[in-house]
Amino acid sequence: MQTICPQCHSSTVYEVFDHTHDLVFEELLSPAAIVGLSVGICKALKVPPVVGVVAGTAIAVARQHDAVPLLVNKPYRCSDCLHEF
Ligand SMILES: [Zn+2]
Description:
Blueprint lengths: L12 E3 L4 H9 L2 H14 L4 H24 L3 E3 L7
Antiparallel strand pairs: 1-2
Helix pairs in contact: 2-3
The structure holds zinc ion (ZN).
């Protein structure tokens, strides 16, 4: 099945494989890093660290749900009009 640009209807589209920035970003914000960061913020705010563990875990779980469609959905870029879809 040929992929066609929805903007200019050109068939010269290619998959965007350059996810280097996303991978670095994901590594920086790994679940363990998020929990650690949350505990650090709680200590700074003189809030019990357990609050940070709970909040950090919730954020990490929410982020993992967000990350799944990103991995499944490969973006395409049109080489004629540079439209991404
Ligand atoms: Zn196009």
